[in-house]
């Protein structure tokens, strides 16, 4: 259970969000069915799990949702945390589909640099000089502009077994945040600038925000049902409610910006940046 940070009885949802400068909304969801549940006919019958549903790992559910939505939602990037980015098949599938991705990866990923040297990405970052980083303003925060130090280079992630497929070059993006922490990302966008990559990575913040909105304002986590249909009904309604809140908030900000009243001068400045 990610919310509790430990193994515990819970229901895990796999969500797909759509983020843009005009707002962020949840657009698809799947209930994760553990392998023990998927193989238990009695439990499935009691919860009303459809016969066609089979066990799928989180990243497989994510691919299912992306496949459903990719043709109807114009987009530039696929973003995800390191539980997805570390899965080679996940990255390869997105690459095969022609999707431009930027995925977080753990600090222990092993890569080969252009000179043939192999090392972990965290050790690679430690070997970089200050001049190897570029300062990038990624977005506007509540207390002012948010900046990161970014480094990109083309590397070849190491694959340890033949069944993982042939190795291919990917872009490694290293970000040093204001608190000194580092984050690591793999991308297949070799012709994209460092600044563009860093700004794309910052969009993950808005996804976390909309999930908090769904839980705090739309009751996403407040339910007691134990049926497959009940869960999907509740989640669908809370996703719609969250979209409504985002839409109304954006409309309200536009209305404040259009107001001719002198009192609206302050809000015009406050809402000049993309809504968060």
Number of strands: 10
Shape: globular
- Radius of gyration, in angstroms, nearest whole number: 21 Å
Class inferred from helices and paired strands:
alpha+beta
- Strand percentage lies at 15-25%
Mean pLDDT value: 88
| Largest sheet properties | 8 strands, mixed
How far the N terminus sits from the C terminus, by CA atoms, comes to: 27 Å
Low-confidence spans: pLDDT under 50, at least 5 residues? Answer: 259-276
The ordered H/E elements are EEHHHEHHEEEHEEEEHHHH
Task: State the helicity in percent bands.
Answer: 25-40%
Helical segment tally?
Answer: 10
Could you characterize what this model shows?
The chain is an alpha+beta fold and 276 residues long. It has 10 helices and 10 strands. The protein has helices at 35-38, 41-47, 58-69, 82-85, 88-96, 121-126, 194-202, 204-217, 228-258, 265-270; strands at 13-20, 23-31, 78-80, 101-105, 110-112, 118-120, 134-141, 144-157, 170-176, 182-187. Strands 3, 4, 5, 6, 7, 8, 9 and 10 form an 8-stranded mixed β-sheet that branches. Residues 259-276 have low confidence and may be disordered.
